[in-house]
C-alpha cells in the first residue's frame, strides 16, 4: 500500500511539473 501511495505522489508531482513546463513554454 505504501508503494502505491508513493507512486501516486510521484505521478502527481510529475503531472504538476509537466503542467508548469507547458505553462512556461506558452
From TrEMBL:
Species assigned in the record: gut metagenome
Name of this chain's protein: Uncharacterized protein
Amino acid at each position: 500500500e505504501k508503494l502505491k501511495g508513493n507512486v501516486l505522489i510521484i505521478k502527481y508531482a510529475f503531472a504538476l511539473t509537466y503542467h508548469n513546463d507547458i505553462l512556461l513554454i506558452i
